[in-house]
Amino acid sequence: MTIALNRRQTLLGMGAMGAAAALGTPALASSRNMAVLHLGSHAPSFIAWERGYFKDAGIDLNLRFFEAAQPMAVAIASGDADFGVTAMTGGLISLAQKDAVKVIGGALIEKPGSPGSLVLASNKAFEDGLTDPSQLAGRSFGITTAGSSFHFMAHKIAQANGVDLAEVDLRPLQKLGALVGALSTGQIDAWAIQPSIATKLLADGAAQQIGTVADCAPNYQVTTAFTSTGNAANEGELVTAFVAAYSRAIADYNAAFIDRTAPAEEVDELAAIVHKYVETDSPAEVAKENLINGAQRINEGLALAEDSIIEQLEWYKSEDMVDQSVTREQLLDTSYVETI
């Protein structure tokens, strides 16, 4: 899929990078922070930072690490971070209603036939008969928190398989590391997670695959790019420069790990960059293999699957996790990217 930058994005991005090149200093000089997670899905964040794409675009940007999606949204709202790329959450939607954050683009997306998130069962549960998502009733399913993307995925998996979500024992364990440990030791029966983590669990013999999220939720926009409402409304050059820089890294990532059109030395270089932040306790070759096997396409140009975002918004409303009055306009600013 090839998505062109819109006119505003292209012109402003070129202006920011051109000024930086001409002056030899960032066009947007004040220091900024980007909220990130130690996940392979954040590979473009690491690539853009390590390769200097943010500096090329005139942004003095630093990476700030978090353990879950919702605290990232809080950091954007409070001004502790300027940008984030992570999943939709009830917390993010509530902050958008308060005019604190805006979704400005899309990243990971689930599409049948493409690499994506896997539904996993613990070895214990698998041996006890949990071999298909249709058997989740009466079983425990791991999530980070109520209102998280994992909660929404549990809903989509249950819905697609004719299971009443009320019959699934949702276990909020707060952090990704806790979920990995709980599944590996049989403390929870099932979980759904991006392939960068799932493939490692499978390779280690710590879990069993029982399904895919794409089969249950086709065209699900898993992660989004977001910033503060103030940035979106008043810092157009900054936001456009960020989108342009991040888009360069997405192109590198897709070429190396999805389309496989990049030369071998480029793949090695990008894998080494990501290994600084992901699976740091694994040998470099193992981490590289897991990154390749667990890669998932990221929308070029941060294009946004708007219908999926609206579906998620309406589900959060239906579950009374967010106020019924939240509007599309409060949540989204689609002026910086294409919608698909």
UniProtKB/TrEMBL annotation:
Belongs to the bacterial solute-binding protein SsuA/TauA family. It is found in: Periplasm. Its main location: periplasm. PROSITE patterns: TAT. One of its GO terms (cellular component) is periplasmic space. Gene3D superfamilies: Periplasmic binding protein-like II. Coiled coil: none annotated. The keyword Signal applies. Residues 41-252 form the SsuA/THI5-like domain. This is NitT/TauT family transport system substrate-binding protein. Keywords: Signal. It comes from the Bacteria. One of its GO terms (biological process) is alkanesulfonate transmembrane transport. The lineage of its organism: Bacteria, Pseudomonadati, Pseudomonadota, Alphaproteobacteria, Rhodobacterales.
